[in-house]
Amino acid sequence: MITKFSELAKIFCLEGTVENISVIPNGHINSTYDVTIKNSEKTNRYVFQKINTYVFKNPTLIMKNIEGVTSHISKKLESQGKSRDFVMHFAHTKDGNNYYVDNDGFWRISEYVTDSVAINSANNLSELRSAGKAFGNFQTMLSDFDATKLYETIPDFHNTRNRINTLTVHVKEDPCKRVEGVKEELKKIEKFTPVAIRLNELVDSNELPLRVTHNDTKINNVLFDKNTGDAKTVIDLDTVMPGLVAHDFGDAIRFAANTAVEDEPDLSKVSLDIERFRAFSEGFIPEVAKALTPMEIKTLALGAFVMTLELVVRFLDDYITGDMYFKTHYSDHNLVRARCQLKLAEDIYDKLDEMNNIVSEISGMKF
Ligand code: GN1
Ligand code: MG
User: Fold this and answer.
1) What is the 3-state secondary structure (H, E, C) of the chain?
2) pLDDT single digits (tens) 55-114
3) Neighbours of ion ligand 2 (CB under 5 A)
4) How far is the CA of 22 from the centre of ligand 1 (A)?
5) Which pTM was predicted?
6) 216 lines ligand 1 (CB under 6 A)
7) How many A from CA of 261 to the centre of ligand 1?
8) For ligand 1, what atom is nearest to the CA of residue 28?
């Protein structure tokens, strides 16, 4: 691996010797490495990433999106006199590309954000507030970015209705003969479908606007300052595309306000922690509220339910079709994930009134 990574370092014009490589295990899609390169002046750390081209069919266009989005944010940070660490920086080849393709795959390298740490679960409520603020701020920074300049990296990514329709087709085909074992789950998905497609309907009737959103707001996609514990940089920009504010808010809640991990097999441990919900909301909502329509605010909590159910559908679909999309670590991993997310979706559904009251309180909007 040292030889391979030394070659890549050279191609990306990084001077020095590759000293250390370790795998960063976060993320279900791409392969990520923490790499140290030493030259006569100093030691630098980088993140080397191999893009999953089964999931991302046109990675060159993803890198074009990323170039546009990061330079838009960089300019803003510069004019506001803020640290360049608040946005990701990618290395370029001598031809000026922020990627390189070889027989092995599609590669990119970003600078390792100094003194940063990624967390899979918040250690306290203040980290959640801070993550909420960071994702909210990310959206605000991009509010004047021309969405027509963005390539749709995965078409219909958060089109929940489409996801359910695809699952229905695959259930009929049952290519791996796994449907018999998931009848209960399918029944529940069917029962929840009218609520799960509510955001689709509001988009169709032009009651919800599309904005430039992150679309993958897991708390491990924010880097925190190791020393202060404040959120620093939003990472994983592969799915920055037009989307709904409720998607970003909802997906963050799904992951960070769960009392258990995303793939917890013991369902008695899985629920929505209302205090964590409140803390994330306190960070996110004030950051974005001014720009939002009343309907966008009204549908934030619903977004948490929709995003959780959508992921049930996605994990179950991958299970039924033979685990091609998400990396799995054991044979029925996707099924365990789907069941965990389904338990969480049921709990969120039961708590929607309480969640809406909190959103109303924080936003100052009555509904
Ligand atoms: C994937 O790449 P990662 O692990 O941050 C997925 C998200 C899911 C998430 C579930 C491109 O995100 O949509 O919500 O797993 N990303 C893609 O953990 O499909
Ligand atoms: Mg991702």
Assistant:
1) CHHHHHHHHHHCCCCCEEEEEEEECCCCCCEEEEEEEECCCCEEEEEEEEECCCCCCCHHHHHHHHHHHHHHHHHHHHHCCCCHHHCCCECCCCCCCCCEEECCEEEEEEECCCCEEECCCCCCHHHHHHHHHHHHHHHHHCCCCCHHHCCCCCCCCCCHHHHHHHHHHHHHHCCCCCHHHHHHHHHHHHHHHHHHCHHHHHHHCCCCCCEEECCCCCHHHEEEECCCCCEEEECCCCCCEEECHHHHHHHHHHHHCECCCCCCCCHHHCCECHHHHHHHHHHHHHHHHHHCCHHHHHCHHHHHHHHHHHHHHHHHHHHHCCCCCCCCCCCCHHHHHHHHHHHHHHHHHHCHHHHHHHHHHHHCCCC
2) 999 999 999 999 999 999 999 999 999 999 999 999 999 999 999 999 999 999 999 999
3) 216, 236
4) 21
5) 0.96
6) yes
7) 14
8) 4
